[in-house]
Amino acid sequence: MSNARDQLTLDGLNCASCAIKIEDSIKSITGVREASLNFVTKTLKIEAADSDQLDHVLTEAQKVIRKLEPKVIIKNKEIEKATQTLILVGLTCANCVSKIEKEIKNIAGVKNSTLDFATQRLTIEADKHELNRITAEAAQVVQRIEPGVRIKESQDAVKVSSFKNKEDEEKSDHRNELIRLTLGAAIFAIGLIFRFTYWVEFALYFISYLLVGSEVLTNAIRNIRRGQVFDENFLMSLATVGAFAIGEFPEGVAVMLFYQVGEYFQDLAVNRSRKSITALMDIRPDYANLKVNEEITKVSPEQVTKGQTIIVKPGERVPLDGKVIDGMSMIDTSALTGESVPREIEPGMDVLSGFINKNGLLTIEVTKEFAESTVAKILDLVENASSRKAPTENFITKFARYYTPVVVIIALLIAIIPPLVFPGATFYQWLYRALVFLVISCPCALVISIPLGFFGGIGGSSKQGVLVKGSNYLEALKNAEIVVFDKTGTLTKGVFKVTQIKPSQDFTEEKLLELAAKAEIYSNHPIAESILKAYSKPVNKEDVQSYNEIPGHGLKIQSKGEEILAGNAKLMIKENIPYDDPINVPGTIVHVATNKNYAGYLVISDEIKEDSPTAIRSLKELGIKKTVMLTGDARSVAENVGQELNLDEVHAELLPDQKIERVESLEKQKSPQGKLVFVGDGVNDAPVLARADVGIAMGGLGSDAAIEAADVVIMTDEPSKIATAVRISRKTYRIVWQNIIFAFGVKVVVLILGAGGLATMWEAVFADVGVSLIAVLNAMRVMK
Tag placement on the chain: N or C end, fewer CB within 10 Å? Predict the structure, then answer.
């Protein structure tokens, strides 16, 4: 395996001693061959022992950096590497996936390669200047292993996988396949029903065999020439040719016929499963109604630029993110958020691409080009999610690599040893048993159904408003034991409002609010905005002669000769002003004074989301051991929220680096298999999101920072979607393991029966193709 290198840029790295610590820590990561951090250029070069370990090494390196220097912004060196995606149209051999993937990884210059059977997408990451050469070599590898596959470049990463757009081709292929199998079956039936001479019967069976099995035989011969012996084509060819060799003509034809019929129905089931999963994310808009002056033109969404105006008619899908400038309507957001109730939209409100306009005519100003739009991000994430394989998928892929050769060797021993050792044992008898053993050995049921199961889980969760960035994260969620929440914007709305106005004896509520509004007129802090909104009257900025912000205390202004103070208790103490000190008030307190006279205080609170109590209750019902809240807010405010939501632990007044320390201490409390999940807003909590086993960004649909930092993105502001994600994870994992146990169980039983002479090739065909078909159909249940 060739070495793999990558380079990171650490923006904001200003500590030279920290650079040495980072370099030393990364060198100690398992799989790192060499690491060097240049403090002057702020570039970190990492070399992994092999390409398989590079992703793991980079992930661990980023954890080290965020632990030692949380404020550093980590960037990949984009110019050094690039990604090419190819669509392998007609890829139906699940067993060939690992072979193609392995060979492409060995091409010089390839950093990583993943082939997803469910989406037929081959993703190659390589040095940018070598990408064309590598893509050409990869195409040769694919054609050598699977000559029937058609290779298409995916120029547009956000398009739904190409299998959605090739239904006519598939129908034609299936029709031709069905005609060939029907003709072969008819000739086989003639030979079986009517009595003929030996050679006529042989000719009928042989013609029938060639009709139904010629493709399998051709593939087997071609693969043997290339040194790829152990696959399902070889096994079926060996078993059926062996049956002909011992004079079992009907059985040889029957096994090949039923194998091919089974494969035909299996292909139909796989394609239907793929289409069903893709239909869940069928949100890509076909066109946009571009308005230029008073003329409306139907154009591709990619042609519309930021700032232009589009029209969305009733029943149409919103093609691009934007702001409504005219019109009112009800919109269906279910495709993106999973919400079944339509949302009312009016001028000034934001809309996202993928929403469906129900009734009114909307005029929208575009705020993002299509490549940066919400629908583009979602499709890209969902399509590429399967490239991050779950541990179960990786295990089965490795297992399948060794399973078939071992079974072939055992079959060979069954055919040779018993006739030589046991008295009365005939070579014919044990050869037949060995052939039965071979038919059973193909691991297709596992190799096909498991990726489809995880892909279905990712597609299903997306339909519920939960974007999971990889099968590995979907599987990790099932083991969630501790869920840690940020407060503002996660459990609370993040929208501050004045909830109490407490004037002193000589002031009215209106006067107190007026003084506070004057003091906050130049501030853009959310608390200042909430005070100005509560006052709801215009404040003349020209009345303010001086404005002085006192860090950590508050504000001091001069207005028409009047000195106004607004801030916390420390400001009152600093200015020697006696003040009221309320106890256990659920909110932020702003004290106000004028000309050294205490005017009273305001309480500004952040409301708890209506969905938060349901979220915590649902998580506890699912068996989550501990729910914790970390916040930088005041202790009294945090404890009030914690009590109301029945959280197990609350830690308040924390700085970002202290949040990481708390997360690390909480990680020590989980079991070895357990996972810690952190839920934050995806912007301020990026270091903690990255540090947790699974990071979930709440309400981060329009946030690039959220999508980058988190492993899972909740498309709405509903914390209850976390429980939904855990349920889908557990259901997916349960169905995947049902398939594993079912496939192994049936195969082991029939293998034993076959070796003991109690199972014929008919049972063997069921153990191979029948089990595969049932497993695929079972995998489709994950979407319901």
Answer: C
